[in-house]
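Design job #97: recover the sequence.
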């Protein structure tokens, strides 16, 4: 009886262990592994349901919860992406609206100023031009002043030329307030630099300013509006002259940069320089460091607008007491772009 009792006890223990192993341990282990995977971020993980008892119901509940968590996570991610996209879109819209408001305000002010300047300056300039032409005709008809005739004619020609240039500059002021068509043609930048120096040569000599032109040899023509680029360079040169009231040095340089497919024009001086706090806003309209009555702060703003219309960029480097360097970067024109324009110009000449 003791032997049978021992065998029966061992058999019952084995069957109990097997029952616990199959019915309790494996489902609990599966639940534990599923919980660990869920904690690791594997949302949607499913546990195999092998029974209809309490552990089976627990496994089924776990599966439902896992699917709900995955669905919620996907929904949250989708909403986050949508919200991020909408925030970026609204930010861009607000930035554009802000820039548009600033642009409208600037253009309104510049437009009013341009109308006043055009009305107040164009009329006397037209009178100067008319009388200069009239005086030339008188001198041509009257040979009495033959000895000084040539000198007077040269002076009158200078008056006429400068009057036309002032009138053109007044008209170009409007290019900052409204978009006007550009007269794009193949342009020799070295020739533009030479004209600019000849126009300000007298002022350079009066201020005891030494100038040096370093023009790149064999610089290919670029497609641009030569008059507007000349106006831009003149604005930078005039600023450099104003920055050297007691004399100094002025450097004008053209550099070809085939690597970046662009041409660089540098205007550098060793004048007073620009304060660091003003430098970031130097191209803003009506910002000027000159004395009251000597400038309205539009020269650099117009220059910046002209360069941008040509698809280029203008940069500035300055240090107080050491000088300023402006760099104009203009895109090079491919030969295929230059040829049709040259052909058209030749046809017009014929």
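Job complete. Output follows.
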């Amino acid at each position: 009886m003791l032997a049978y009792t021992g065998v029966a006890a061992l058999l019952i223990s084995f069957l109990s262990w097997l029952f616990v192993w199959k019915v309790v341990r494996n489902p609990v282990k599966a639940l534990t592994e599923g919980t660990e995977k869920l904690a690791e971020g594997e949302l949607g993980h499913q546990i195999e349901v092998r029974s209809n008892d309490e552990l089976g119901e627990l496994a089924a509940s776990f599966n439902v919860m896992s699917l709900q968590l995955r669905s919620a996570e996907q929904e949250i991610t989708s909403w986050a992406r949508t919200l991020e996209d909408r925030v970026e879109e609204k930010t861009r819209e607000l930035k554009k609206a802000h820039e548009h408001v600033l642009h409208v305000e600037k253009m309104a002010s510049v437009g009013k100023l341009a109308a006043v300047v055009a009305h107040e300056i164009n009329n006397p300039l037209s009178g100067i031009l008319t009388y200069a032409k009239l005086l030339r005709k008188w001198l041509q008809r009257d040979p009495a002043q033959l000895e000084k005739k040539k000198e007077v004619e040269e002076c009158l020609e200078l008056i006429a030329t400068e009057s036309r240039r002032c009138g053109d500059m007044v008209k170009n002021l409007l290019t900052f307030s409204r978009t006007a068509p550009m007269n794009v043609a193949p342009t020799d930048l070295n020739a533009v630099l030479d004209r600019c120096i000849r126009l300000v040569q007298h002022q350079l000599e009066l201020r005891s300013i030494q100038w040096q032109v370093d023009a790149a040899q064999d610089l290919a023509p670029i497609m641009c509006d030569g008059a507007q680029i000349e106006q831009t360079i003149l604005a930078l040169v005039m600023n450099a002259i104003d920055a050297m009231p007691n004399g100094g040095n002025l450097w004008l340089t053209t550099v070809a940069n085939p690597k970046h497919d662009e041409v660089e024009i540098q205007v550098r001086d060793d004048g007073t320089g620009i304060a660091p706090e003003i430098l970031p806003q130097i191209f803003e309209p009506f910002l000027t460091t000159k004395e009251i009555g000597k400038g309205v702060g539009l020269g650099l703003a117009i220059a910046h607008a002209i360069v941008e219309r040509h698809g280029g960029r203008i940069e500035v480097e300055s240090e107080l007491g050491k000088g300023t360097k402006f760099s104009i970067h203009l895109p090079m024109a491919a030969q295929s772009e230059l040829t049709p324009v040259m052909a058209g110009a030749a046809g017009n000449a014929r």
